[in-house]
Amino acid sequence: MASHIFGPVPSRRLGLSLGIDLVPFKTCTLDCIYCELGKTASPVNQRAEYVTFAELEQEINSFFAADSAARKIDYITLSGSGEPTLNTALPQVIEQLRRLTKTPIALLTNGTLFSDPAVRREVLDLDLILPSLDVVSEELFHTLNRPAAGLSSHQIISGLKALRREYSGQIWLEILLCQGINDNEEEIERLVQAAAAIRPDRVQLNTVVRPGALAQAQAVTQDFLKELRPRFGAGAEIIAPFKQSRQNDSAIEKTTETILATLKRRPCTAEDLKNALGLKPVEVVKILDLLLDKGEIKSLEHSGERYFQTND
Ligand code: SF4
After folding, report:
1. Closest to 2 in 3D by CA, of 80, 92, 101, 107
2. Which residue owns the Cα nearest ligand 1 atom 4?
């Protein structure tokens, strides 16, 4: 049986995060060109019990019954390898976690399903919701986020505004900018207006960390993000690289060392590392990001594949 609990993994935004993956790999409403997990074969917007509550409950109960539950974690994050709100078992999972732990619970979401009042009701008990919004114009939404049929950015923004009215917890809205796509002045001004209307507690500006599904997903500069930040209001920030954030979990250090040792022997793709070390794709991605931020590895493209190797 696949494990749907992973980590804790180092997270730029949440410190040490224990992940709960509510959907099978790349079950998502979007197919973002910058997705670090690769391509979504077929974006969907139909909710279903993609992983059954019975399966998730068993794993959650075993995790909290074991010694590993005593490890220090900052957040339990409903996230993983696709869009977690697609799973109709979401409210049962939240209830079960509340019964077992006092650790704050966060939801990492692309925000596409909040136009559905039922989805908004299901998340009211969370401590923190981290939705993303990269574009306002419908044309760019299709270029950058490549949605499932029937989704529109207008509908997503309305859903996020409704969520803000109904939900009293923290909302941290992520805006990811890609060079040459959503970094033009007209789109930035539309994003500034949309963020002001949504009224999140924080706006978090981000850019591509490493190439995703397509080579055209290129980063904007940190200077550009710094210039933009004040336009998004007092609560706006730039997501800090890992070197500025805390990361002191012995299990993460061990996995990081194993990945480094593997890359010292030969360059590998993220897929190679996942298969060789038996890790979840999202765990590999997080640790590779951390090592890239620290300058300990570099990435190179070879025959259309992205390889990682140590810098020495
Ligand atoms: S970045 Fe997130 S929302 Fe976009 S395709 Fe990947 S998993 Fe889905």
Report:
1. 80
2. 32
